[in-house]
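User: Predict the structure for this protein chain, please.
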Amino acid sequence: MLDFRPILFILGLLLSTLALAMSLPALVDAATGHADWQVFLASAGLTLFIGVSLILTMRGSDMAIGIREAFILTIASWLGVTLFASLPFVFAELNLSFADAFFEAMSGITTTGATVITNLDAAPPGILLWRALLQWLGGIGIIVTAVAVLPMLKVGGMQLFRMESSDTSDKVLPRAAQISTAIGAIYFILTALCAIAYWLAGMPGFDAIAHAMTTIATGGFSTSDDSLAAFATPGIEWIAVVFMIVGSLPFVLYLQAVRGRPMSLFRDSQVRWFLSLALTLVVIIVLILWVSQDFTSGQSLRLSAFNTISILTGTGYSTAAFDNWGSFALTIFFLIMFIGGCAGSTTCGIKIFRFQILYETATAQIRRLVQPHGVFIPYYNRNPITDEVTMSVMSFFFFYVLVFIALALGLSALGLDFLTALSGAATSISNVGPGLGPVIGPNGTFTTLPDAAKWLLSAGMLLGRLELFTILVLFAPAFWKP
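Assistant: Here is the predicted structure, written as structure tokens:
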């Protein structure tokens, strides 16, 4: 039988942590004389009460968690945190509906970056900080999930990284809890470095901290409707490019680098593939802008690097209406929404390693067709790829496409136009942020969409963030059998 006691205990710990995080925007609003500090304080009190109640009532029970409990815990954690994180949005002076508030909270905690809030430049500072905090917490949350949970659940080929970490000679630290703590420290240090860099480049202190949190988390929430274009400083954009890439690489490799193996970051084939792809895409978009748009070579390079890296990594910042750069550029931006960065990073999407596994498997299959009696084994990072991993990755691709089609059809059925429905489905399941077109494009928001569409997109964000199978497995009757 399923044991919900450890699940509720851990959920209580998470809610208590969330309540403490709510105190920060409460202090900011109180310091600036904004009445929303009472909203954050009341929300923190309610969240803390429920969190502590769960801890006290469930403590002392057996904390052993099986595979089925781990699936439920992962989903309950993200849903529960999102639900309570939406409370400040509901009761703040923004007057958001519950559908809008839940959408904003889900977009924040999944580091998607899609927003229903307009006129951000005049929004209360507490709300702006809360949005950034949600993405920052969601970023470290997905790293820990990817390192400690998804490999154990064998979701979409993630067991590949479990096999790598199970070799005692390659263990970074002896326990997953220690690894998570160490990665959290690195995450905090990188955020601080990003904030300092923004501040030195001319960004105000509050904006520097908020943008640093959403840059490292590859989330994309900004303090302005114009995103980073509001600061009109090329140096700030290049800093963002650097730290978006930093957030897209495996954090376990940063830990290995700190512990005396700096070259492990560059020996990883996933990192090499990602950096090569990013460079190639930037060059292609530079050529498109230089030839078809009225930009200088320097402007073309800056706009291409910033917006291409932002969409590829799923950050979602924008400094230009890139959906107006022509059909070829539009097609590229739509396709790279699905790619994402490396496994074990804050990024979203399909992830680079799955494309590598498909490529190696397809290459081996072609060689077998040419030489039927030959033995060809696909490799990833110089290790053979097992049939189990290959099947997991192929299944992931199948369901990814299937869910994308279902989301697009659902949005179309709700009256959205073709481009909005298609890009909305892509940006939600890939946790990118902006879509394409005049409604939800780089210069638009999701405000005008019907509530049903926002609920559907929220579901897509959660599915994409938790790698699909973590949620889809709940619909299998066999999961609930003793």
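The beta strands are 379-380, 383-384.
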